[in-house]
Write a structure and sequence with these properties.
31% of the residues lie in helices and 25% in strands. The protein is an alpha/beta fold and 258 residues long. The longest helix is centred in the C-terminal third of the chain and has 16 residues. The C terminus is likely disordered.
């Protein structure tokens, strides 16, 4: 296994606000995050916790951002990062009326990638047998894999994946995580979001989010040891309760006898 040293993403004091006046909502507040190079970093948390907003900030497409977001040594969204960062959104970003391989060849031209890159990307996501099939007739999971193939065309140094396994069957989930591990072993840095807690087992490091802020940052072993729990779901719940103790658990509550 080859690991690279250094930092792929450095975030300091990140804040993201939507709306204004009475409709102003603080989506992320005061977030500090480091994503090491060459690791699979899992971004876990329930829907609405700010995972997608954080990822959009990392790839430089999020509005109303304050704080520092540095990616591969450059400000997020810098033109030089175009080929170096791959981004896969929850909704497949492909053309439905042309074939799988035509999609890849079109985006390869935009990125300056080669036909060899097209062939490699198809093989990486196990879509070679479907290369000539029109995207519009593919299943949802197959379309998601086409989006991933597009992101892999330029062999990015950082891959940002927003819920890449949602809606996939267990076999495809297993195969995609095996691909993520191979990419990390080759030195690619991955930031992968999920609301499926058991996917934490496949990550080198975990970022647990809730309500726009970071609950915890560490390896699975570190988080289990910190919370004294046996699995990541129990650890997450323990961290939530540490922040918001149940009513009646306040040691200074008169009704508890102090």
């Amino acid at each position: 296994m080859r690991k690279t040293s250094g930092t792929a993403v450095r975030i300091s004091g990140l804040g993201v606000v939507r709306g204004s006046g009475r409709r102003r909502v603080e989506v992320i507040r005061g977030l500090d995050v480091v994503v090491p190079s060459g690791e699979v970093v899992g971004l876990l948390g329930p829907s609405g916790s700010g995972k997608t907003t954080l990822m959009r900030a990392v790839v430089g497409v999020q509005d109303n951002v304050t704080g520092l977001v540095e990616v591969l040594g450059r400000p997020a969204g810098h033109p030089s990062l175009r080929r170096r960062v791959g981004y896969v959104t929850q909704a497949p970003s492909v053309y439905a009326d042309i074939s799988v391989v035509e999609n890849l060849r079109y985006f390869a031209r935009l990125l300056g990638a080669s036909e060899d890159d097209v062939v490699r990307s198809l093989a990486d996501v196990d879509l070679t047998p479907l290369a000539d099939r029109r995207v519009g007739v593919l299943s949802g999971g197959e379309r998601s894999r086409v989006s991933l193939a597009l992101a892999l065309l330029a062999s990015p140094e950082l891959l940002v994946l927003d819920e890449p396994t949602v809606g996939l069957d267990p076999v495809l989930r297993r195969d995609l995580w095996a691909l993520f591990r191979r990419l990390a072993d080759r030195g690619t840095s991955l930031l992968v979001s999920s609301h499926v807690m058991d996917e934490a087992l496949r990550c080198d490091r975990l970022l647990l989010m809730r309500d726009g802020h970071l609950l915890a940052d560490g390896t699975l072993a570190e988080l289990l040891a910190r919370t004294g729990t046996a699995d990541i779901e129990a650890a997450f719940l323990a961290l939530v309760e540490d922040e918001h103790p149940p009513v009646g658990d306040d040691p200074h509550d008169e009704e508890t006898g102090r």
